[in-house]
Description:
Radius of gyration: 27 Å
Bound molecules: zinc ion
Largest sheet: 7 strands, mixed
Number of strands: 9
Distance between the termini: 82 Å
Shape: rod-shaped
Strand content: 25-35%
Structural class: alpha+beta
Amino acid sequence: xxxxxxxxxxxxxxxxxxxxxxxxxxxxxxxxxxxxxxxxxxxxxxxxxxxxxxxxxxxxxxxxxxxxxxxxxxxxxxxxxxxxxxxxxxxxxxxxxxxxxxxxxxxxxxxxxxxxxxxxxxxxxxxxxxxxxxxxxxxxxxxxxxxxxxxxxxxxxxxxxxxxxxxxxxxxxxxxxxxxxxxxxxxxxx
Length: 190
Ligand SMILES: [Zn+2]
Ligand SMILES: [Zn+2]
């Protein structure tokens, strides 16, 4: 029970649609601004806490329920998967989702509803949490990069390759060669 509550208990993206006539073809436009008190997205990149999430929505009555066409806009921050430099990106992602009237979905048991994530119109509102979350995750790269061709970090010392010159390396050389090198350095200096 508590698992169900935690997954569907938050009402941060509830949209009240009580003024939308339930006659096929009727529609209304909505705009929602939300901020969450936690990051929203993936581990490597997410919408940070308190960043505004802007939703532009059109709700249309159809025979089976209410069709929501939405657009999620926000900003995500994260770390480059190769060099850990900060990464920032805009999110602008659309979605379409059908919310069925409870009478139509009543044939399904609670368990089916949960596993198939069938979305329903409940008490004059629709909960946009699932499509918003899916849209944000779809918009975010699994491996965010600071630049397409980020060369990453030196695997031995962890310095970003961008800050190193082409000569950089860590060959374990024979100590005798080192002695010869320092000797030749000294000779050059004289
Ligand atoms: Zn990078
Ligand atoms: Zn190195």
